[in-house]
Fold:
Amino acid sequence: MFLFINLCQQPAADFIMNRFRPRMPPFGIAYLASILRQIGVKSVLHDDNLKELDDAGMRDLFRRYKGEVRAVGLTSVSTTLGQLARVSRIAKEELPDTPVIVGGPHARLLPDDIIAIPGVDVVFTSEADLTIQDFARGRPLAEIGSILYRDGQRTVQNPPGEFVMDLDKIPFPAYDLFDITQYHTTKGIAKRHPASYLITSRGCPHRCTFCSSKALNPTPSKTVRFRSAENVLGEIEYIVKDYGVRELFFSDDMFTGNTAHVTGVCEGLIRRKLDVVWVAQTHVNSVNPEKLALMRRAGCHQLCFGVESGDPEIQKVIHKNLDLDRVRAAVRMTQEAGIDARCSFMFGNQHETPETMQRTIDFAKRLKLNFASFNIATPYPGTELRTWALENGYLAQPSYERLDSTTYTMVTPSLPPGTVEYYCSKAFRSFYYSPGYVWRRIVRIRDLEELTRVAKSGFYAARGLPTIIRGLLRGRD
Structure:
């Protein structure tokens, strides 16, 4: 048996996005559990985000399965490294002969950080779909690709192993290991519950400076891999009928990038008459009226575009290179198709100034969006942004725990301390608290479901007002 623990994500810094942030199911672990089932290996999952265990509780968890556990599997995102050290230490104290294995984004990008933690035995340095089976079968560590492991007093980095090119060969996640109703998308956004996430592809064709997607892609040419439409539809039908899911968030980097793929999924949803609505995120250059009309018929009620900046020069700097007129056109087409348009924006990228951030706020307001999200540029491992910050000595807070997209962890010559937080707070306030936006939301209420959604959005926005004010005050210190 493998005991997997999804480590607790610490609350974001004292800022509005902590009020709205989603709670995603641990799909990475759930996929591995399904893969292990194919070779007859059982898995148990504890999600510390649902029930956070203190040291005593964690000891009880390990003692409960003592004698059964073949490996303890832990996640690793940058903000959970402190938790990783704590839990791996307790695991070794309670189960000294049981290997502690670690996967996840940080393990793949900076594996030396992980193996340096005393309780960790093996680090999976790439996608673990195949290597987890090799490990479970007892194959010698020296023969397993894409791992970093301890061998006495030394560590050994094995060369890259194989990865799955045909995503249809990967079984559906083990949904039975968690309660889908305990998770949610961004608060106030979902129209129906329970809502869940679904992944139909891996990878992104773009090279934005703030994103680590390219660095995480194991394919030599950084290929975007897609599941077949029938495979995706099979999973949707399964979770709708067996788990009562009523809304989906397609969490692909760019859901509409492959026209044949999105057409197949949409036509299949219409043909199967599944009672589910959905949200997706994509690029402004990959939508047109025909595609949007089909998506609307298939149940799409919101589409999110990553815009990031309303300043043309910052667009070039971050390698987004969006034509702002094209952004306006994509938003207009989306809304004309009957789909809510949502854009995400980011403050504090390379060469940002107060003037460029104000242009972003003004641009966001002029778009007359249904929703907007405002984040802070964060130098995640594996990004060009982090390399730039390190090379120039701009990384003010080297600690990974604050890499939560709500804390500005850099100090640049053009942005005095507190400036980025000030403009991010200002953006949220000026967008969501404007009379025009409030009125647009009210006049669109057509049923009780929409009224409930608007009321929830207003409730969370009101709860966040004190933090907005604090963010504004910080910028004026």
